[in-house]
Amino acid sequence: MTHIITSICLRDGACVEVCPVDCIVPGFPENEWPWYFIDPDTCIDCGACVPECPFEAIFVEDEVPASYELAAGQERIPFRGERYASDGGEVVDLTEDIQPNYDFFQSGPGYDSKP
After folding, report:
1. Is the pLDDT of residue 44 over 90?
2. Per-residue pLDDT, 109
3. Secondary structure (3-state) at 45
4. Which pLDDT belongs to residue 112?
5. In degrees, to the nearest 5, what angle opens at C-alpha 50 toward C-alphas 44 and 56?
6. Is the model's pTM score more than 0.85?
7. Are 68 and 74 in contact (CB under 8 A)?
8. 42, 23 Cβ separation under 8 angstroms
């Protein structure tokens, strides 16, 4: 099971630096693919990326929360939306962030990044 980078990722890049198999790819163009994405065919589920994320945006796919409460001031980039800061208490479904990861590597620009 792969890991998923969710919409609370703000593209810090620390996860890319620690990945031992180079499976994390930034989306480009950024306005169409605003997140980092994890190649499910390459990810070895080591979890090295999880503690490196300053936004706590990376989850094992089966553990992506369906009801995630945003903290006051916490920023989020919905896949098809604008970056915003929460007033606090807003509950979002991060499971909606799973499919864009697969889309990126099946038909998006991530397809070209595969060896």
Report:
1. yes
2. 86
3. coil
4. 75
5. 145
6. yes
7. no
8. yes
Paired residues of 76 in beta bridges: 84
Distance CA 62, CA 54 (A): 21
Mean pLDDT, residues 45-68 taken together: 97
Q: Tell me how far apart the alpha carbons of residues 31 and 26 are, in angstroms, rounded to a whole number.
A: 12
Which residue in 43, 52, 5 sits closest to 21, CA to CA?
Answer: 43
Pairing between β-strand 75-76 and β-strand 84-85 as defined by DSSP bridges: antiparallel
Query: Closest Cα partner for 12 from 43, 39, 35, 33?
Result: 35
For all residues of the chain together, what is the average pLDDT?
A: 94
Alpha helices in 1-115 (DSSP H): 14-18, 49-52, 98-106, 110-113
Alpha carbon distance 68, 86 (integer Å): 12
Q: What is the pLDDT of residue 27?
A: 92
